[in-house]
Amino acid sequence: RSRSHTVTTTSSSFTTNLSASSSTLAYDREFLRTLPGLLMVTEIVLGLLVWTLIAGTEYFLYPAFGWVMFVAVFYWVLTLFFLIIYMTMTYTRIPQVPWTTVGLCFNGSAFVLYLIAAIVDASSVTKELDSHNYNSWAASSFFAFVVTSCYAGNTYFSFISWQSRTLQ
């Protein structure tokens, strides 16, 4: 007996879109030459310095330094993530996301939480606490304030960008 077989093949739009979008991967070299781009790179480099200076000590014995570590590592990872988004121009491929609002909320929250962490870091540094780790904690405190000022600058630029988008 003879059977009839019907085979239906379909093409997935996902694979078509994936191959089309991967061949047009954009890279924005000019972003690093802008002031927000330079601030972001500075935030990444000095933020890394903040948390490595603390991580090299026995910070886990003091809850205040645990908070500073959380803020420093959390915003270091997110800033790296946003740098990749801006460098690869991913924000142009996802127009549903209000990127100016996201940038303003990110930079604003980073500024506020880093300011709190820098104050906590500076107020927790004493020679009596642990003289062995004093220099590392003091240096991390200094760099935390520098990173805070970088996030303040990027918050300003994000606000200007957000305000120009909402006025249009």
From TrEMBL:
GO terms for biological process: myelination. PROSITE patterns: MARVEL. Residues 31-163 form the MARVEL domain. It is a multi-pass membrane protein. Pfam families: MARVEL (PF01284). GO terms for cellular component: membrane. InterPro entries: MAL, Marvel, MARVEL-CKLF_proteins. The keyword Signal does not apply. Keywords: Membrane, Transmembrane, Transmembrane helix. Its main location: membrane. The keyword Membrane applies. GO terms for molecular function: structural constituent of myelin sheath. It is found in: Membrane. The chain crosses the membrane at residues 35-54, 60-85, 97-117, 137-159. This is CKLF8 protein. It comes from Ceyx cyanopectus (Indigo-banded kingfisher).
